[in-house]
Amino acid sequence: MSKKPAKGEYIETDTGNKVSRKCQIVGSTNIILGGKTIIQAEVIIRGDLIRTLPSSRSASSGAAQSNVAVAIGRYCFFSTGSALRPPGKLFQGQFSHYPLKIGDHVYVGPSSVVEAALIGNHVHIGQGCVIGKFAIIKDFVKILDGTIIPPNMVIPSFSIVGGRPGRVVGEIPEGGHEAFDLRELYKTIKNS
Amino acid sequence: MSSSKRASTMPAGPKPPTSLASTLIIADNATLTGTNLITIGASTIVHPRTRISCVHAPVTIGSSCILSERSSIGFQSSPSGEDQGRGVVIENGVVVEIGAIVEASRIGEGSLIEVNAKVGKGAVLGKHCKIGPLCTVAEGEVLPDFTVVFGNGQRRIDSSGAQELKLKMVGRQVEVLRKLIPSNLAKFQ
């Protein structure tokens, strides 16, 4: 309180998230950051696109409907110019957006656009990728630069995906999963 | 908090002349720049950070369109012929996804411009066209109705006959987005 922190590029939260002052977050009350996540400049996150259709599960149990639009785990890294947006579809005649869930240690490269339904842990998304609506990406997946993941695609664990449209082109070799750890990358981002 | 820094991020240019329908939803931090006329029809949704530029030519957008964040609508250089004098004309029910660049002379009804696609200057798209993600349409190119551009620039004609359903879906999407996106129409009038 007494000592005003120096004004750097990033705003650091109590849980260690580093959020650039130049990022473009809309609807921040509907976004959950797990901690130690880095959001670089000009990243767009659309938290305002919440679910408008009540889910059958919460309606039956009578629980208060959670308004989470984007849930992000720990040690994620969103590069400059990437965009996260909850996917939307028509279901039983009504249009609604659905939450975008992202696990831990997920890297999203510069100017990639993510509209997936679910991204697992330890996923590397390259530069200029487009992840289509309602895609499901499991754990330890590497998506090469410039890949277009078509809508509704399910990518199994330990895949390497590339091309337009994206296809599984290889497998993560044994022992190769250590490269997905983003803790070192987190440490390199300093508030200068 | 230095006030000079704040001022530099908001260039105080004159507002472009606009003709906006009263039921238009336009987010607070969309940007309209230029000196030509911008016309936007009823029930259209303009997401935050959409850029509409009428610096070089007018922009006309129909009703029930969805313009997503970071998309860029309008000529980025002077029109190079009399047929381009009308600028960009987007018909009803067109969806422009994130980061797409639209410089087309005309985009037909119900077309879909996907993520980061680019439609070159003066191109003419027929009705119900679909330009896939990262695909490009060259300057001045003319695409017939129902054209689908996909992959690395392959073309085909969509004969599924689902265009009515797609228009309906866009309508439903507009209804939901109307509730979710706070509009600040007064700022742009």
Q: Can you put this structure into words, describing what you see?
A:
Chain A: This is Dynactin subunit 5. Chain A: Its main location: cytoplasm. Chain A: It is found in: Cytoplasm, Cytoskeleton. The complex is a heterodimer of chains A (192) and B (189). With 192 residues, chain A is mostly beta strands. Chain A has one domain (12-48, 68-89, 96-188): UDP N-Acetylglucosamine Acyltransferase, domain 1 (3 Solenoid). Chain A has 2 helices and 23 strands. Chain A has helices spanning 56-61, 183-188; strands at 10-12, 18-20, 24-26, 31-35, 38-39, 44-46, 70-74, 77-78, 83-84, 88-91, 94-97, 100-102, 106-108, 113-114, 118-119, 123-125, 130-131, 136-137, 141-143, 148-149, 154-155, 159-162, 167-171. A 9-stranded mixed β-sheet of chain A has the order 1-2-5-8-13-16-19-22-23, with no helix packed on it. In chain A, a hairpin with a 5-residue loop joins strand 1 and strand 2 (18-20). With 189 residues, chain B is α/β, with parallel strands linked by helices. Chain B has a single domain (14-181), classed as Hexapeptide repeat proteins (UDP N-Acetylglucosamine Acyltransferase, domain 1). Chain B contains 3 helices and 21 strands. Chain B has helices at residues 3-9, 163-180, 185-188, and strands at 18-20, 25-26, 31-34, 38-40, 45-46, 51-54, 59-61, 66-67, 72-73, 88-90, 95-96, 101-102, 106-107, 112-113, 118-119, 124-125, 130-131, 136-137, 142-143, 147-150, 154-157. In chain B, strands 2-5-8-11-14-17-20-21 form an 8-stranded mixed β-sheet. In chain B, strands 1-4-7-10-13-16-19 form a 7-stranded parallel β-sheet, with no helix packed on it. A 6-stranded parallel β-sheet of chain B has the order 3-6-9-12-15-18, with no helix packed on it. In chain B, strand 20 and strand 21 form a beta hairpin. Chain B starts with a helix and ends with a helix. The model of chain B is unreliable at 1-5 (pLDDT under 50). At the A-B interface, strand 11 of A face helix 2 of B.
